[in-house]
Amino acid sequence: MSRLEVKALTHVYSQGTPFEKTAVQDLDLTVESGGTVALIGHTGSGKSTLISHLNALLKPTSGTVLLDGEDIFASKAAIRSARFRVGVVFQYPEYQLFEQTVFADIAYGPKNLKLDSTEVDRRVRQAAAAVGLEESLFDQSPLELSGGQKRRTAIAGVLAMEPEFLVLDEPTAGLDPAGREELLEELFRWQAQRGAAILLVTHDMSIANRCQRLLVMAEGRLIMDGTPRAVFAQSEKLLSVGLDLPGAAHIAQLLRQAGLALPPSLYTVEELADAILSLRGKEGAPC
Amino acid sequence: MLKDITLGQYFPGDTPVHRLDPRTKLVLTLVYIVAIFLIGSWGGYALTAAALAAVTALAHIRPRALFRGLKPLVFIILFTAVLNLFFTPGEDYLFHWRFISVTYTGLKRAVAMVLRVMLLVSGTFLLTYTTSPLAITDGLERLLSPLKKLHVPVYELSLMMCIALRFIPTLIEETDRIMSAQKARGADLETGTLPERARALLPLLIPLFISSFRRADELALAMECRCYNGGQGRTRMKQLHMAGRDIAAFGCGALFVAAILILRRLGI
């Protein structure tokens, strides 16, 4: 089992100029392989800065990032190895496509790993299958694909590196609801099959509450860390940093304010429905 | 990082210098550049430096910002200095060893050249620090408008310049983003032989080109949706007006040039 640890990480942009800005402050975090984690926070809360440290794209102003106990900034080789072990898919990854064919684009990462061609071939096919790209598309130019297919190609390009930690920044932004659902399913399936860890950066609470663990960032700090149930139970705190509640939790809160004795920490539609039905059973009154 | 490039960075403000008409500032900058080449005495350099310091203070620009602008030019400045120091012919040796010789004239000329380049660059930086790129293009367009009679497409040129300026920061950001994305896929931009490194740039350049074309397309579409049809008959939201302070500024400029010329004649 692999471990990714962030220790006392601080990152300050443009230090020493009038534009100085502290994006991440004294942040500690440990993620182990085999889980699904969602990172939520308002725009400008430091999420993107944080994830750029996880694969050594940004150097911390102070603090470290450890991968299985080793500092990923220790040497050039360590940085390189971190880039392959921690795959990062940035927002709108389709803008990074550049090869002449879909196959070649997905193969770019594995080729940088200096793998032999049969292994590259295997990984490309597996990654494409994981995100539901048909092999008939392999010879097409990635620029001729539809938006959703482009996104899948770009994500497959990172999956093909077979990272132990997969970080995705808003992977479903700009997709239609059906496409969003499909992509999430595929990603979670991939995660479960490989025993890797997924870290999803998102604004969308309906995505966040499908992960096993929730991290909430505000103003460069990690302010909450726990199961979705524990985090969504603290609705006041979430709302105070400009975040929403999932739909069901929001409705539960409104019903509580209207005087219904609903238990705290409801956040899925099923739970809410059960709770309301059980109330009805008790009091026999129509809701 | 790439973001730290201060090329033509504008510091918004509301000082007399900021409020000057961009045309005034452009013309005065031109006058200033010509004046620097008319300097013929140490007194002239002192006066120019004092004038520059006065305008900098008036514009509330921190001197540090001006020096930061000079940073990328350190090499050129040093090169000029060394060239003048060692390769000025003369008899008044300060130092002489085999084929290396430094003359007093050479030393003087080296110092003068360094001063000249520094004054020149920081003066023009002052223009871009206190005038928004939009105002500069606007001013340029108005200044060049007599050329329209010679069928020079002044309006189109200024529009092109305007768009180019507008998209520099956007492209820098985009480059940063694509670079991160490709590095995350194990791209190695730093090591390797020259041809290898050139090839390693492709994953960066191709997406950048594609997105530039896409942006240009979107911009053209947006302009057409707003019924853009060229410069003919267009009115402006921000009219340029010459005011009393512009005349005062021109007066100061004229005095400055006269003083430089007098100092040159007197040899002070």
What features would you describe in this structure?
The complex is a heterodimer of chains A (287) and B (268). With 287 residues, chain A is an alpha/beta fold. Chain A contains 11 helices and 10 strands. Helices cover 40% and strands 22% of the residues of chain A. In chain A, strands 6-7-8-3-9-10 form a 6-stranded mixed β-sheet, with helices on both faces. Chain A has a 4-stranded antiparallel β-sheet with strand order 2-1-4-5, covered by helices on one side. In chain A, helix 3 crosses helix 4 (117-130), helix 3 runs parallel beside helix 5 (147-159) and helix 4 (117-130) crosses helix 5. Chain A starts with a strand and ends with a helix. In chain B, helix 3 runs parallel beside helix 6 (104-130) and helix 7 runs antiparallel to helix 8. With 268 residues, chain B is mostly helical. Chain B is built from 11 helices and 2 strands. A two-stranded antiparallel ribbon of chain B has the order 1-2. The interface between A and B is medium-sized, with 24 and 20 residues.
Topology diagram in text:
The complex is a heterodimer of chains A (287) and B (268).
Chain A: E1 3-13, E2 21-32, E3 36-41, H1 47-54, E4 62-67, E5 70-71, H2 76-85, E6 86-89, H3 102-112, H4 117-130, H5 147-159, E7 165-169, H6 177-194, E8 197-202, H7 205-208, E9 213-218, E10 221-226, H8 228-233, H9 235-240, H10 247-257, H11 269-283
Parallel strand pairs in A: 3-8, 3-9, 6-7, 7-8
Antiparallel strand pairs in A: 1-2, 1-4, 4-5, 9-10
Chain B: H1 16-19, H2 22-38, H3 42-58, H4 63-70, H5 74-86, E1 93-97, E2 100-103, H6 104-130, H7 133-144, H8 154-184, H9 194-200, H10 202-225, H11 244-266
Helix pairs in contact in B: 2-6, 2-7, 2-11, 3-6, 3-11, 4-6, 5-6, 7-8, 8-10
